[in-house]
Design goal:
two-stranded antiparallel ribbon; 4 strands; about 5% strand; flat; mainly alpha
């Protein structure tokens, strides 16, 4: 079932895509920080970073929720077991495994480690946000003059696939590096 509507407005699949899983993930992470406090009497720098970074991802996803409408999950997949189970169980309980580990194993990071982690995270998030914003703009309006410099190739479905810019570079790296490691 591609579009499961409640009334004439709310699509169950679209609502399940982000909110329950991501909010559940953030709540479970906060609970893990509370558990670490209970176990050790303090919250480690590693737990603070994990909670801040993952909460940043959750807030970013919810803030940019409209861009989810251009993803494959929404445009081509139906609402079924995979989406329902994945969003209600897989996301909150597996994405938060770092916080679960830290709740029982306190890890204190040095200032150098914290700085290095913050630098890598800032770079990664900048690339992530830039790539996703560019992809969403392209999927929303591929004829936008601001995107005219980007290269795209036609797909079998009759749509265009972005192969340059942030998204093209990130997709190429994401798809080819694991393949090169296997070969």
């Amino acid at each position: 079932m591609l579009r499961s509507l409640v009334g004439s407005e709310m699509c169950i699949r679209d609502s399940f895509e982000l909110r329950p899983g991501l909010i559940g993930w953030a709540v479970l992470n906060a609970a893990m920080a509370a558990k670490e406090w209970d176990n050790f009497g303090s919250v480690s720098s590693a737990m603070v970073l994990v909670n801040c970074f993952q909460l940043t991802y959750v807030v970013d996803a919810l803030w940019n929720e409209a861009s989810i409408l251009t993803t494959m999950d929404i445009t081509t997949d139906g609402f079924g077991f995979m989406l329902a189970f994945g969003d209600l169980a897989w996301v909150p309980f597996t994405y938060g495994m770092q916080a679960r580990y830290l709740a029982h194993t306190q890890v204190q990071l040095s200032s150098v480690h914290i700085f290095a982690i913050l630098a890598v995270k800032l770079l990664g998030f900048t690339i992530f946000r830039g790539a996703n914003a560019q992809k969403n703009s392209f999927r929303t309006n591929p004829n936008d003059p601001a995107l005219a410099h980007l290269k795209a190739m036609p797909t079998e479905r009759g749509t265009k696939l972005l192969i340059s810019g942030w998204w093209g570079t990130v997709s190429y790296t994401h798809l080819t590096l694991p393949t090169k490691r296997i070969v």
